[in-house]
Amino acid sequence: MVKPFRIKTSSLQVRIFLSMIFLTIISSVLIAMVIVYQFKKEARNYHQDRLLRKENAVNEHVNFILQTTDYPVTTENLPLIFKDKIFELSIIHNIQINIYDLKGHLLITSKGNFIVDKIDNEVISPTILKIIETTSTKRFTDLRIIDGVTYRSAYNYIEDNQFKPLGIISMPVAEETSFYDTQVNSFLILFGQIYIFIIFVAVMLAYILSSYITKTIQLISERIQKTNINQRNEKIKVENVSDEIKTLINSYNEMVDKLEESAEKLAQNQREMAWREMAKQVAHEIKNPLTPMKLTVQSFQRKFNPEDPDSSRKMKDFCETMVQQIDTMSAVASAFSNFASMPAQQ
Prior knowledge:
The protein has helices at about 10-70, 80, 85-95, 125-135, 180-225, 245-305, 310-340; strands at about 100, 105-110, 140-145, 150-160, 165-175. It is an alpha+beta fold.
């Protein structure tokens, strides 16, 4: 028959020790995850705010160009208006600029040596056009990841003086994450060094605390193992312990008191049983000579004849028999009396 598999239960001290180490590791890992997440969140917010600032600055510059141009401000004239200005805008604001018509077709671009040249900017997808049209802010930020690089592209309307949409301007920016990656790596290295020290301190504290917590429990366990009804058991006296341990100690001490009471009652019952057995034996020993004495008296009473010439001898035998039986009973009574008056047993 195959025996069922059972997991060996560790001692309480080991379980407390491992639990504290486990909690320390988990808390440290969670802290590291939260900090790394915070770094990445700050990086995202930084790039988002940076793109928004550039977008506002470019829009103000674009509005200035539209107000000072000699060409009629129409969608068809946008390539002429920004023919030379778009490169100036791109250099001043250090950002690539793409201008589209309202249907999303590219009119003019400042493509040059920007890394965002990898993005296909020939046409705006209908989904983005719909979002720009329906949102209250009339703008949208598209997020793409190409070859492991994150790109943000801001889209918003180019408007005339009457706030009539003329076209759509797009400003794609490649997120530069090297600074934050360096910060995260530096933090992880520093945190790893601190983490090793924390683990070392946690192991020491866990061992000390687990030993302290289980010390009293171990003492109670040893006392329970040594508890014997046939001897006097010492009570546990420990101060400065928790309420749970104090309750356990009080329960053990109450058990010792009850055990002593039970031992006294058991001893008393044993003595009573011994005396009962002794009384039965004494009664039996006393009854043994009484029976022959009775028979002898009855026989002597029936057969005794004063006129019998052998009456003196018979009387003498009768008396000797009675004296012998009486001596036997006297010996039993003396032995019982001597036993009853024995000194207390040590």
